[in-house]
Amino acid sequence: MAVKFQANDLIRDEHFLVLKKENKQTSKGDVYYQLELSNKDGIIEAKIWNNNIPQCNLEQGKIIEVNGKTQEYNGRISLIIDSCQIVNNEDVTEYSPISKTMVFDIETVGKKFEQLDEVEQDYLINNLERATEDKEEAKKKTGLYAIFGKVCAIGAYNPGSQKGIVLLLGEKDLVPEKENYSYKIFVTEKELLTEFWKIATEYELFVTYNGDNFDFPYLIIRSGINRVKVPFEVKKWGSDKFIDLQTKIRQSHGYKLEILCKAFGIENPKEAGVHGGDVNELFDNKDFQKIADYVARDAYSTTQLYLIWKEFMSGN
């Protein structure tokens, strides 16, 4: 994500965070500094040539005030610094680059129990749902498993642009409940998944609630079944690129999202009367508007929880 400068822009008293500083030498043996700088707009490479080093005071991890000029080389914009000095009275976090973030949630629907063959029925009841004492209730849970279900909706929100999108299986245009959302309708799950992964390639950070155990595995399995290419490897555990808030905000066990929303003073996505367990019936009744609005609210509430976690709970 590059800082938005053009070639030959004059830079006067601009502030940047020094992400990286390296001492280099030209082929003639002259020393120069190679830098990586950032602000909220992104990252830019910079150089301080030998003759300007005496006019520069900087340290890695510090904010500096810069004077210089941009240049373009091989299609890349970089900054040539004439002078700079350390600024001590500003918050470093204000100059850290913001990763383009997608907060998302999926909704799924499953086959009717009667549509499964005998082997599949037995596997659902006596293996996948063996802990469910009510067998009639267990029969309704096909949508929880990617081998028996499909993705019917994905709600995604970008906290940077403060805009969201819903990708939905449906039959007609819908009016978004939230003004900053757009809805896109698809006829097949394959088309929906193809569009999701296309959009996902534009992002650097993914935030979910229970995405490690549900959303990502479900999407990946359904993509394989539909022969849709997953464009990058999803390394969920131990990766800074994938944040599952359920694992970040837990004690001895994970909380339900709606309970955390109540505790943190966030709009509860289920207050309008729709729950995940209702989606199958809503889909069968072709009530696509309620599904779209629900998944949009879910993604938005998850975003609010993420912003609180990021600012107050995540440390550095």
Task: Fill in the keyword field for this structure.
Nucleotidyltransferase, domain 5, five-stranded mixed beta barrel, single chain, 8 helices, OB fold (Dihydrolipoamide Acetyltransferase, E2P), six-stranded mixed sheet, 316 residues, elongated, 2 domains, alpha/beta
Short characterization:
This protein has 316 residues and is an alpha/beta fold. The protein has two domains: 10-95, Nucleic acid-binding proteins (OB fold (Dihydrolipoamide Acetyltransferase, E2P), Beta Barrel); 101-113 and 140-313, Ribonuclease H-like superfamily/Ribonuclease H (Nucleotidyltransferase, domain 5, 2-Layer Sandwich), CATH 3.30.420.10. The protein has helices at 118-128, 135-138, 189-200, 211-225, 245-248, 257-264, 279-284, 288-313; strands spanning 10-25, 31-39, 42-48, 63-73, 76-87, 101-110, 149-158, 163-169, 181-186, 205-208, 242-244.
Low-confidence stretches: none
- Multimeric organization: single chain
Distance between the termini: 21 Å
Overall strand count: 11
> In this structure, how is the largest beta sheet organized?
6 strands, mixed
* General form: elongated
State the helix count: 8
| Overall domain count | 2
CATH topology-level name of the largest domain: Nucleotidyltransferase, domain 5
Helical residue percent? 25-40%
Gyration radius from CA atoms, angstroms: 25 Å
Record the strand order, biggest sheet: 9-8-7-6-10-11
- Give the name of the CATH architecture of the largest domain: 2-Layer Sandwich
Order of H and E elements = EEEEEEHHEEEHEHEHHHH
Strand proportion: 25-35%
Structural class: alpha/beta
Overall pLDDT metric: 91
